[in-house]
Amino acid sequence: MTVALEGRGLSRAFGGFRALDGVDISVESGQIRGLIGPNGAGKSTLIDVLSGRAQNWSGQIFLDGEEITHLKIQDRRHRGLARSFQRTNIFPTVSIGMQLTVASRALGDSGLAEVVEALNLGPLLDHQAAKVSYGDQRRLDLALALVGRPRVLLLDEPAAGLTVEESLTLAGILRDLVRRWGTTVLIVEHDMEVIFSICDRITVLNLGKTLAEGGPDQVRRDPAVVSAYLGSQA
Ligand SMILES: Nc1ncnc2c1ncn2[C@@H]1O[C@H](COP(=O)(O)OP(=O)(O)OP(=O)(O)O)[C@@H](O)[C@H]1O
């Protein structure tokens, strides 16, 4: 198996506080990797560092073996590293169809129709983003990350604020699409049903460091993970 995304010694501090403290992470090609841990563990910080959104961090990042440490967010996106956001990253007054078209053109992508169909956004293309439901906005956010068929997809709580049923539906759509495309995924999610239903492997962060890493069953049974995070969800 080849490694699609690798971070070495990733650290980021806010003032004197180390939000991310020397994290190594290596995600194999085609794998769906969960990133879990308590509030404030450093998960979003790690996604920000890997995607190129963060400033003032240290360490090294490799995409398909090529170093991208110094590339800006847009350049990483063009190399095939996409992300979604914890809060939706959409333009409220622009139609859903227009947002997807603009994103797709910017990436020179012809696979937009497949994304629209998979996420069932066809009936909503003429609607302003602000006027559709929150669940629809989350699907638009995910679609914007999927446009261009990224090789690696970083997802920051794609199911946040959705009902259990909506979350599992979204997780199923996502799993089917990325399996079909062979996309590598790193997903932050607090909904453990989503994590355990789609992830091949899970990394657990706590206090800015890696607490554990392994298959879903291994992580679920790890006493340190249960104590720091999972509790009764294990
Ligand atoms: N811009 C910032 N300025 C100061 N501290 C920050 C900033 N961003 C994050 N932090 C702190 O860094 C730590 C890690 O935050 P991060 O958002 O990465 O955690 P998280 O694991 O994603 O948490 P959550 O599950 O609540 O989203 C937290 O203690 C947070 O308060």
Automatic annotation (TrEMBL):
Ranges of residues in domain ABC transporter: 5-232
Keyword Kinase in annotation: no
Keyword Transmembrane helix carried by entry: no
PANTHER family in the cross-refs: AMINO ACID ABC TRANSPORTER ATP-BINDING PROTEIN, CONSERVED COMPONENT OF ABC TRANSPORTER FOR NATURAL AMINO ACIDS-RELATED
Record-given protein name: ABC transporter ATP-binding protein
Gene Ontology biological process: D-alanine transmembrane transport; L-alanine transport; L-isoleucine import across plasma membrane; L-valine import across plasma membrane
GO cellular component annotations of the record: plasma membrane
Similarity comment text for this entry: Belongs to the ABC transporter superfamily.
GO function terms (MF aspect): ATP binding; ATP hydrolysis activity; L-isoleucine transmembrane transporter activity; L-phenylalanine transmembrane transporter activity; L-valine transmembrane transporter activity
Organism whose genome encodes this protein: Microbaculum marinum
Protein origin, superkingdom: Bacteria
PROSITE patterns named in the record: ABC_TRANSPORTER_1, ABC_TRANSPORTER_2
